[in-house]
Amino acid sequence: MTKYHIALQLYSIRHDCEKNLKASLEAVSKMGYEAVELAGDYGKTANEWKSLLSEFGLKVAGAHVPIQSLLENFKKTVDFYKTIGAKYIIVPALPVDMVKTKEDWLKIVDTFNQLSEKLEKENMKLGYHNHMMEFQKLENNWIWCWLFDRLNPNIVMQLDTGNAMHAGLTNEDLIRIIEKYPNRAVTIHLKEYSSTNDKALIGEGDIDFVSFTKACEENNEIEWYIIEQESYAYEPLECAKISLNNLIKMLS
Q1: CATH assignment at residue 155
Q2: What is the pLDDT of residue 107?
Q3: Does 164 fall in a domain?
Q4: Domain extent for 177
Q5: Residue 209: enclosing H or E segment and its boundaries?
Q6: Among residues 192, 191, 230, which one has the least CA distance to residue 13?
Q7: Residues 6+ apart with CB under 8 A from 128
Q8: From start to end of the chain, where are the E strands?
Q9: Which residue in 79, 92, 83 sits closest to 52, CA to CA?
Q10: What is the pLDDT of residues 17-63, one digit of tens each?
């Protein structure tokens, strides 16, 4: 096994989780994943999640939580994820109508900073995960970098490699971002990108994960590398297994 800690974003196998969460978590554990990152509760209570995760020896690498849940139901949301042991609360995306202008993005900076302070009091950390939108330009800079230049330094930069490459970034760009913002990436989304195969799994595409993870380790105290797959050459669980095995081979 690699020395790195690897988790699976459960969105990768969401339909399996919808059908049978217990069997899905058991399968993930047997593959060799140490943890999962949540994206939804699949109708289970926090205590039910805690029991299932304990049964299969899985840790929690964090959770993707819509910003509306934090703004409208902060205490309920915090209590749920605190119960299951999720330290990192990651906003996975922002509604497009919230971020149409520079003024909108400035409001997001204030909102994120305020939420971060509230979560710190709960011994939890706020984070943000990119799609392609964050690599449009604002004031002659990528929105992603413009944003993290202004956010509290304790807000986690959860860079998604595949989404960034889809937006036009290169392997060198990914490394430059990690180097520019040391100690901001605590959890990272490892997602493949291929210019010729939209169903490429980890290790089958254009991303140089060896160089990227090396830069991550040199500039951050990474807690979790989180595999995410959103297109499927095989059944989702099989894709998750192949991606994990390929990553372990590359990083060992």
Answers
A1: 3.20.20.150
A2: 98
A3: yes
A4: 6-251
A5: helix 209-219
A6: 230
A7: 90, 91, 112, 147, 151, 155, 156, 157, 158
A8: 6-9, 35-38, 59-64, 88-91, 125-129, 137-138, 141-142, 156-158, 187-190, 224-227
A9: 83
A10: 999 999 999 999 999 999 999 999 999 999 999 999 999 999 999 99
